[in-house]
Every structure is written in structure tokens, then in C-alpha cells.
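Q: Could you write out the predicted structure for this multi-component system? I'm mainly interested in how the pieces pack against one another.
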Amino acid sequence: MRYELYYWPTIQGRGEFVRLALEAAGAEYVDVARLPKSKGGGSSSLMGYIDDPDAKRPPFAPPYLKAGKLVISHTAEILQFLGPRLKLISADTANRMWAHQLQLTITDLLVEVHDTHHPIASSLYYHQQKREARRRTLHFIRERAAKYLDYFERVLQSNAKTKGRMLGKAHMIGRALSYVDLSVFQVIAGLRYAFPRTMRHLESDYPGLVKLHDQVAVLPNVSAYLNSKRRIPFNEYGIFRHYPELDRP
Amino acid sequence: MRYELYYWPTIQGRGEFVRLALEAAGAEYVDVARLPKSKGGGSSSLMGYIDDPDAKRPPFAPPYLKAGKLVISHTAEILQFLGPRLKLISADTANRMWAHQLQLTITDLLVEVHDTHHPIASSLYYHQQKREARRRTLHFIRERAAKYLDYFERVLQSNAKTKGRMLGKAHMIGRALSYVDLSVFQVIAGLRYAFPRTMRHLESDYPGLVKLHDQVAVLPNVSAYLNSKRRIPFNEYGIFRHYPELDRP
């Protein structure tokens, strides 16, 4: 199966969670909007299907994935679909449902991260809502970041303990790499980029998540991806943005 | 199967989307936190499992549903699970995936509705972020509400047209009642409660959604539920809150 991913071509954003899964699994895929315009790429390629009046089941927004005749939107649902196909989650139903719950919690976290720099409106620039962004981010780094990270660390540690011992390898679910591991990697990488001082302050509380991040980063397929031009660098257009004035002093 | 729903006992909130599905289907369920404390109810019943250090797969937050040995959190995933069991979505995989996409779009809308009155932090009271709430709500009612409603109306109209004719009954998916129909009912009811002047201004653009709302409201099981004490009235603690100063003038 050759997958087609439709997502903004200049940011990691939500699409990055899908890219990481496809890359880690060595899947065959096209990142359509990153093709040259002459080959059907560019941002306009994303909206064609969304705005097509004849599209029977149009996505609300990117990312969406075309897989044969299926068109699937929402990052967490794309990963729910791809997970078993890419062997990034076991076939066990309870495991798959649990993975989806964790991914939906990551989805919620991403909204909160986005809203640190855009607490008023996505249609405004950051500088037009900077005062509100400062106030919102203060709460995010004091209350919310730790609440999410506490939870993910607890899930990871609980998973390690279910077999009665700490593992050599850290995983969110079971004994094998899952798409949730990849997503946690991206969350840690993103938080480090956006809030480096906060993360230096917090990270010692999350040894499991840091270990998982480091393990994912050196997986051969992931490492090759991260060192390629396919990995768009973090920047101030995506979800994780580095505005030093928002970080801890 | 006797389901146990765990959700805040004094608000509709996100749990209401699950309650509506259970009620519409005539399912056997217990709304655990609404039981008297002597029978294991109250808000504290919600946090027991979430905070239990021995819980292997704890939810991040209510709502969550216990179904036999399964514990499922996140409204959209609970509905994805219940849908086929309550005959509130067809067994067809593509239909089920599409229903989940629509429900996840509703999830996104609910965050935006919540953040109209809490744009800075959930840990603060509304009156502590009223200025920011005014500014955020202005964008919500001018830009975002219509964007979501346009999309849902388009999906509904497109579904009506797929069989070449407008229907007697309005449905989001196929020819039968689905949990997405119930959720759209709740969205319309909630927006009307929170922003009555905005909705009076907008509603003529959404004849399909209004029709769907009205049809759902008179379904025998739904109507009985809405007229019972089990339906918690809208109030200023949930997602949809009526603060007249935030609505259109």
C-alpha cells in the first residue's frame, strides 16, 4: 500500500506524528504537499479535496491520509488506522483501544501547547495576542505540562512494572515499539524546543519519558529520517514554537 | 451488558454525549457519580480509579466508561466503542471510521467552546479571565462557530444527496440514526443555550442541522430523557455556559 499524506508542507505540526509512524515503519508514502507544484504539490493540494463540493466525506482540516479508496482525517484516527498495518501496535483489541486513548490525550495536550501562543484566535498573529499568550503560558508551564508528563510517566512506569521488572527498553504499551512511543518522542522533542528552560527544570522528574525519547531517536529508520531533509526543522509556524519570552525565566 | 459511566455529576459537559447515546438506545447503565454517596456516588467516585496507583491503564480524566473488564476514556472513543453495540452506527468499517472523524471534529469544537469562557486557564474562574474571554469569544462567534456549522451542514446535505434526493429525515451518516446525530443535537442545543443571540442570527443558514436537532429531540427515548431528572440542565459549570456579555449584542 502506497499511502498519501496531506499536510502543510512547511511545518511539523500534527502531521509530524503521522510522518514519524510512516518513517519508523519504512512505509511507502508520499507527502503530497511537499512535492513540487508541477507534480501536484504545494499547500493548494491540501484544500482541493477539502473544498471539493463533490467530496462526499470531506475532512475538516489537514492532516488527512489517502489509503486506497479511504480518506482518513484526524491525527489520532490516522494512527489508529495505520498502527496495526505498520506493525506499530499489536493486533490485540484492548491494546489498540488503549493506544488510541493515549493518542487522544496527546491530541488534547497539543491543543494546549498551540494555545500557549494562540490563546485568542488562530486567525491572529502571535504578536497580536502576546499579552494573553504570556498569561496562558504561565499556567501551562506551571500546571498543565507537568500534569500531562506526570500521567505519561506513570503510564510508562506502570507498563514497565506489569511484568514485574523494569525494562531495558522503555515503552508506553507492552514490549514493542508502538506509534504512541513515537508520539511521546515528538512531544518531548517539541516541548524541549518550545520551552527549553522549563524542560531543563522538569525533566529530572521524567526519567522514563526521557529514556523513551532517546531510544526512539536512535532507531535506525527514525534516526535516518531525523537527519534527512524530510524532517522539517521546528519553527515558529507550527505547534511547538520557541518564544523565549514565554518560557520560564 | 450493564455499562458504568463515570462523569461529573452536576454538569452535562463531555459526558452528556455518552449519556445521550446510552439513553437513545435504551441501554442499561449507571451514571455512577450521580448515585448517592452511600451507594458509591459523588465526585470522589470519579477520581478513585484515576488516582489508584495500582490502576494499570488509568484514564487521564473523566468521562470514562466501564464495560465488563474494559475501561475506556475519551468521549469520542467511548462512542466509537458503544456505537455498534448500541446500534447507533452501522457495522460497515468505512461508516464507523467516518463517524469517528466527525465525532473528533465535534471534540475539537467543544474545546473551542470551553475556551471561550476559559481562554487562559481551567484553574482560574471565569471572572478572572473575563477580558480575554470577551476577546476570544468575539473570534469564536464571528469565525469559528460558522466554520464548524458550515462543515456539519455540508456533511449532512451531502449525505442527503448521495441517494439522489433530499430526505424526509436528516442524518449525518447514511439512512439511520447514529451517535453523531445525537452529538449534533447536543451541539445545537448547547450553542443555543450559550449564545442565543448568535444562534438566532446564524441558524437560518443551517436548515439541515436545525431539522436534525428537532427530529432527535422528539425521538421517544430522547424526549423521555430530556424531560426526566436524569437530564442535568445547562448551567455555568459545564462547557456551554450562558454569559450574556460574551454573546453578540
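A: Regarding packing and overall arrangement: Chain B has a mean pLDDT of 95.
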